[in-house]
């Protein structure tokens, strides 16, 4: 299988390095052949080529079976007046590959409950997956700027809503058959369309799946007040961005959460939900688990290697259970480095 | 002083009734004369007049010193195809009165920490106020709908951003001189403008106030992970809607939180941040504290009656401390009714 590796910026290179080692260990153990190609994206690509997503990178991704990405962005490229920004590279890649469904599973581990701001009794049994629409909405609508004002257009078509709701309902079939669709239908026209389409798709195509609707403001509350109530959550791009960072607090750290971005084609993009964390970049202390678990999702969704994916997930669980935790999770003074956590995961995979 | 009372829908009449009794008790105790006028808004107004904000209501509010509102909306008026919706009345009122700054203070009470999903040690000392922009952004931009798609325009002018940031910085001067501005400047053009304008206003006009920027997704995390870090938070309309519902979980219940919506004129609008809660409407169990505390903000911000405002706030604190709690806060089987909580607050005010 051909895998493109996009290290990106900040802690991106450190965490992708860890995940690549894990992929290599899985290949050895199961006798697979993974061919890894590195390409440039984000700030690193701007520095080298002037563009956040060089054509060579996009083409390599289009030809690949899957893409593993670290993170993009950083203060070096964050001047509000800058013409090109690292994030444009990531957005153009998601759009260019047609990856409209971003899956973000949230399953707190017993070993990391201490790091969560949420009371532990609310967290046991939490097992949700957020399906975030990833190639539409206000992220991609027309942007305008004048001397005295600015605007962003939020747009959704029926087809865009249908396909992502369908993906969420399909996922729910393999789980607890329950989908909560999140919108702001009491204010937004796009949300009213979202609600209508979601209702119709669920009723006509998924009679075995229960669909509920929640307003996004309420959801921001319920997500932490009664997290066990959720199975699959489906929502538009901006709401999904906000709610998944919030949901990461259920797991104890943003650094733990993986994601899979899928479209109609075979190629998927796998990245941790955290950012490039410039404040800790280069110090060898970043949590590699989000990226390692993203590699597991890559094996599952793009390569169909379920046993291998589970093997990685169990290895990460075992390492967390053993208390080998990076600084985002460990009690003060007891933190393991990125390398130590990675080595512990690799040891589980021998 | 002339106060317009807008009961609205669902639990709106129940909670405004409680707050009106409290205002009457304050008037008696301090020898003030409050003239209260009731008017229609929301679903109740649609049923009576066909419009969610009848002209008579808007005019009465424009002439008044202050407006006290319950909540609007409910399933009866929520057909996605409906031409008029209760929420339009609220939005038109905010816009019609020019109330661009929505102040939402969050100060957890010791007595309600048990009801919060957040670990108690994170909550002691939390004292923040969110300033939400209330008359711009995606709430008020052009909406379009066709057979196959829908759109909402998010727009901000420099002047709209300046005035709300100024209000936030002024508030910070009476507090800990610290403002966090929340945006999504790595993706949205309106957010980049927001960040530039906020930076300039703070630097040029408030050199004594420290301004920081946070991305909205990060903020959804930090708000619950380290709530003590925040003093004043300023953000655009939609982000403020989501983040304040989330922040209500710090206080233990949405039902506790008041808000004040202010503009350049003297008239302010005071409403709890909760909605019309149709599921519990008419059962006499709603938490009246958010609306009672909104009446306190009314006295402070529109009538300049600080001692009276504090007197109400202390009365509510004392009632919470005494364990007189509605069902949203009480341990199972120990809940007080709306009337019991209100009576307890009134007893404190004798
Ligand atoms: C870096 C940024 C553009 C991105 C997003 O907002 O989608 C990130 O926050 C994420 O969630 O993947
Ligand atoms: C009812 C609704 C329109 C309103 C809003 O979104 O502003 C409410 O959620 C609020 O926060 O006051």
Keywords:
alpha/beta, Isopropylmalate Dehydrogenase, two-stranded antiparallel sheet, homodimer, 19% strand, binds 3-isopropylmalic acid, 350 residues, ten-stranded mixed beta sheet
Structure, explained:
Chains A, B: Mg(2+) binds at residues 217, 241, 245. Chains A, B: This is 3-isopropylmalate dehydrogenase. Chains A, B: Homodimer. Chains A, B: NAD(+) binds at residues 74-87, 275-287. Chains A, B: Substrate binds at residues 94, 104, 132, 217. Two copies of one chain form a homodimer. Helix content of chain A is 42%, strand content 19%. Chain A is globular. Chain A has eleven helices and twelve strands. The two termini of chain A are 21 Å apart. The longest helix of chain A has 19 residues, at 12-30. Chain A has helices at 12-30, 42-49, 55-63, 86-96, 158-173, 189-205, 216-225, 237-251, 289-301, 306-321, 338-349; strands at residues 2-8, 35-39, 66-71, 101-106, 128-133, 143-145, 149-157, 178-183, 210-215, 232-235, 258-262, 268-272. Chain A is an alpha/beta fold and 350 residues long. Chain A has two domains: 1-109 and 253-350, Isopropylmalate Dehydrogenase (3-Layer(aba) Sandwich), CATH 3.40.718; 117-251, Isopropylmalate Dehydrogenase (3-Layer(aba) Sandwich), CATH 3.40.718. In chain A, strand 8, helix 6 and strand 9 form a beta-alpha-beta unit. In chain A, the strands form two sheets. In chain A, strands 2-1-3-12-11-4-5-10-8-9 form a ten-stranded mixed sheet, with helices on both faces. Chains A and B meet through strand 6, strand 7, helix 6, helix 7 and helix 8 of A and strand 6, strand 7, helix 6, helix 7 and helix 8 of B. Strand 7 (149-157) of chain A pairs antiparallel with strand 7 of chain B, so a sheet runs across the interface. The structure holds 3-isopropylmalic acid (2 copies). One 3-isopropylmalic acid sits between chains B (73, 87, 90, 241, 273, 275) and A (186-187, 217).
């Amino acid at each position: 299988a051909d895998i493109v590796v996009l290290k990106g910026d900040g802690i991106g290179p450190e965490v992708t390095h860890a995940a690549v080692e894990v992929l290599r260990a899985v290949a050895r153990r199961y006798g697979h052949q993974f061919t890894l190609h590195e390409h440039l994206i984000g700030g690193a690509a701007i520095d080298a080529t002037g563009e956040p997503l060089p054509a060579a990178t996009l083409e390599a991704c289009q030809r690949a079976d899957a893409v593993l990405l670290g993170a993009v962005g950083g203060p070096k490229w964050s001047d509000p007046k800058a013409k090109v920004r690292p994030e444009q590279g990531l957005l153009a890649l998601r759009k260019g590959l047609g990856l409209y469904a971003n899956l973000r599973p949230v399953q707190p581990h017993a070993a990391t409950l201490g790091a969560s701001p949420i009371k532990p009794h609310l967290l046991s049994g939490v097992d949700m997956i957020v399906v975030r629409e990833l190639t539409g909405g206000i992220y991609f609508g027309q942007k305008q700027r004048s001397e005295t004002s600015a605007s962003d257009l939020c747009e959704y078509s029926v087809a865009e809503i249908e396909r992502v709701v369908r993906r969420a309902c399909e996922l729910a079939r393999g789980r607890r058959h329950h989908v909560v669709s999140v919108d702001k239908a009491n204010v937004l026209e796009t949300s009213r369309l979202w609600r209508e389409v979601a209702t119709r798709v669920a009723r006509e195509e998924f009679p075995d799946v229960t669909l509920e609707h929640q307003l996004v403001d309420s959801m921001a509350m319920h997500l932490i007040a009664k997290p066990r109530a959720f199975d699959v959550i489906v929502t538009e791009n901006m709401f999904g961005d906000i709610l998944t960072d919030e949901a990461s607090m259920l797991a104890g750290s943003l650094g733990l959460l993986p994601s899979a971005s899928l479209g109609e084609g075979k190629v998927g993009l796998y990245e941790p939900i955290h950012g490039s964390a410039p404040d800790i970049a280069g110090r060898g202390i970043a949590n590699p688990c989000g990226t390692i678990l993203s590699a597991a999702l890559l094996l599952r969704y793009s390569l169909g290697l379920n046993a291998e994916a589970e093997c990685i997930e169990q290895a990460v669980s075992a390492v967390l259970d053993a208390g080998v935790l990076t600084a985002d999770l460990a009690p003060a003074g007891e933190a393991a480095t990125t390398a130590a956590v990675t080595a512990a995961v690799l040891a589980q995979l021998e």
